[in-house]
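Practice problem: predict the structure.
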Amino acid sequence: MSDLRGFERSLPIALLRAREATMRLFKPHVDAAGLTLEQWRVIRALAEGGQLDARQLADQCAVLPPSLSRILTALEGREMLTRARDPSDGRRTVIHLTDVGSALFQRIAPYSEQAYQRLESEFGQENLNELLENLAELRAAAERLANDQT
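Answer:
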């Protein structure tokens, strides 16, 4: 037997299980809109952040660039977003929601907020806020450690 901590105390497994359970609260309204969860994240990020470039969007949405490219192509095909060259930097492409994308966001956002309210009611607003802060700190620590390895 190794010194490896038990499977039930594995942080990656616990995070995956929490993610899956949490996403089940948000997935129904996203599915009903004909979107994937990743597409919804892109729409939401653009609705909240205005126009973003692909690098900013990939980082904010926790999506790898090749996946983001496919997501953008699909959403652009549905006329939910547009891509254009940044007039101040021709190497940069900026992405923003169209009226169709904004309308979809406005239609889905209340259902997303209801899911948050249900979760806060069950888990507690203070617990949720503390968890979000702890996860941000965990991410920063893990990124520092990963950078130290390179």
